[in-house]
Specification:
The chain contains 12 helices and 3 strands, in the order αααααααβββααααα. The protein is mainly alpha-helical and 298 residues long. The protein folds into 2 domains: 4-105; 131-291, Intergrase catalytic core (hpI Integrase, Chain A, Orthogonal Bundle), CATH 1.10.443. It has a 3-stranded antiparallel β-sheet with strand order 1-2-3.
């Protein structure tokens, strides 16, 4: 429930412009148990939604219509392409979150998206890459015209089960080239762990380390560290997605996380599900098998 101060603040801005209303409505979000990256991403989407309302002369969030919401949810991307189902669902989630908070301040408000149904996203799970697909990805990384070292390092860390959120945080001091391992920091819900570099990945890191002699505090998989924003994760995910695309590996079930799932599958096939769960940093054995598109044997 909103505090008396929040209610007073809402009454002061109500109907006086969507920007002022948005500031009051989103205020409590910073107090919720949302990660910084989730909060930043949702707030960014809502800001774009509000900017569309302003551009069409909507004066209050209370006046937003279903047509306003649908126009935003199905709007083309910055490249004027049709949005993916994942993007469409994420936009609806952001708008509904905004209206849910607004309804706490304005109990009679009716969410215009209540009956807005969307097509299914399909199977949301990424599948592991095959050995042949991983070889194509490695070739794609090494053949990159610009930043080939950075691309190869990102793939090498992903092969060691690093997530796109962990890769920007790994420093050279976390890498043990002699042992062929890398200390991975973890991130909710993934546990911190020691990742095993593949022979190819170990060779890549060894070559680049010998060529550049980087300081121990330098970041391995990114130009710089990103410790307070989701921008580092987004940059790595975008880089790996481009490499997958250049390798001809496109499709709804092939994503950057498919690289680390390749490593999980390799461990599963050789050492069993317990070892695979530990390697991926997943606490649940069933969740590990689901992520690897496997089922428990009966």
């Amino acid at each position: 429930m909103p505090t008396a101060e929040q209610v007073d603040a809402w009454n002061d801005v109500r109907g006086r412009g969507v920007e002022g209303e948005l500031y009051v409505v989103l205020g409590p979000w910073s107090e919720q148990s949302l990660s910084a990256s989730t909060l930043e991403r949702l707030a960014g989407l809502i800001t774009r939604f509000v900017n569309r309302l302003i551009a069409t002369d909507v004066e209050s969030l209370l006046d937003a219509t279903l047509a306003d919401c649908e126009g935003f949810i199905w709007a083309p991307t910055k490249r004027n392409a049709a949005p993916s189902m994942h993007t469409v669902h994420l936009r609806r989630t952001a708008v509904r979150g905004l209206f849910r908070t607004l309804r706490q301040l304005e109990p009679d408000f009716v969410d215009p998206t209540t009956h807005l149904d969307l097509p299914s996203k399909g199977d949301p799970r990424a599948r592991p890459l095959t050995d042949d697909e991983l070889t194509s990805l490695r070739i794609s990384a090494l053949g990159r015209v610009r930043s080939s070292n950075r691309a190869a390092l990102a793939v090498a860390l992903a092969e060691a089960t690093a997530t796109t959120g962990e890769i920007p945080l790994v420093r050279w001091r976390d890498v043990d080239l002699a042992a062929g391992t890398v200390a991975l920091p973890g991130a909710t819900p993934i546990r911190a762990r020691t990742g095993a570099l593949s022979p190819w990945g170990r060779g890549v890191l060894t070559r680049i380390h010998n060529e550049t002699s980087p300081p121990a505090d330098d970041f391995v998989g990114s130009r710089r560290g990103y410790t307070d924003s989701h921008s580092g994760q987004a940059a790595i995910a975008n880089l790996l997605a481009k490499l997958l695309d250049a390798a001809g590996l496109v499709g709804g079930d092939v994503r950057p996380t498919s690289i680390r799932l390749w490593a999980g599958t390799t461990v599963l096939n050789t050492r069993g599900v317990d070892a695979a769960a530990a390697a991926l940093g997943i606490t649940s054995l069933d969740a590990t098998l689901r992520s690897l598109h496997r089922q428990r044997s009966t």
